[in-house]
# Entry
Amino acid sequence: MTVHLVGAGPGDPDLLTVRALKLLEAADVVVHDRLVDPRILDLIAPWAEVIDVGKRPGGPTDAQDRIHDVLVGASRRADTVVRLKGGDPFVFGRGGEEAEALRRAGVQVAVVPGITSAIAGPAAAGIPVTMRGHASGFTVVTGHEDPVAGRHLDWDALARLGTTLIVLMGASRTAAIAERLLAGGMAPDTPVASIESATTSAQRTLRTTLSELDSQIINAPAVLVIGTVAGLDVMDEAGLGRLVADATVNEPSPH
Ligand SMILES: C[S@@+](CC[C@H](N)C(=O)[O-])C[C@H]1O[C@@H](n2cnc3c(N)ncnc32)[C@H](O)[C@@H]1O
# Structure
């Protein structure tokens, strides 16, 4: 029948959409990724079949094809199938490929957008991705591709854009990211914030500058925010818009 590509948001179940919650409570089959928070899996109806297709680093390269097969198979035996993905299904979630594969197999597809970690991560640390006087736009890129060896992203252009740069999947590539942006002309004192496990009990924010970024150890999953807004914590009780001192570490905060 229909496969619903559903965004689970960044982690906190309160950040699910109403439609996502309704579908989780009604689904016959839920096929989920590794990054979906256990508190969200707890919302699935007890009778539903739950399939974990989370790819592990170094896992088989045909994993995506096997996920397509699992989804097509589920759609043949169940009325309501939920394909649950962290954040938004169409932001680095391979949701587009899955939608195409399902349509090719003659399966109906519906999409339920989710709150992407690209915005919720910074927000959880008090960082607005745009702000008058700081950034009039933001750009979201993957850090998965090696910025030094890779050919797909123009890091020189990104260094010159002047908008907030948000990097997903970049926790293990901070040295290369910093190297490419500095080589592209971005100022060494540009603030950088890394928000790990945003909106979960493990949330942690690290603050530094571009030139010091390579000395930080960042635990995945993490969102990197690069630009002047990364020096702000607009929810800090000490004062709205206060510039955070460089190279500080903020432990999980209540907001
Ligand atoms: C495969 S991408 C999926 C992104 C997802 N579709 C989204 O919209 O948030 C996985 C990356 O998202 C980021 N991410 C997802 N959840 C996160 C969280 N709770 N805190 C920090 N980063 C997160 C990390 O950069 C992680 O490596």
About this structure: The first strand starts at residue 2 and ends at 7. The domain at 117-250 is CATH 3.30.950.10 (Methyltransferase, Cobalt-precorrin-4 Transmethylase; Domain 2).
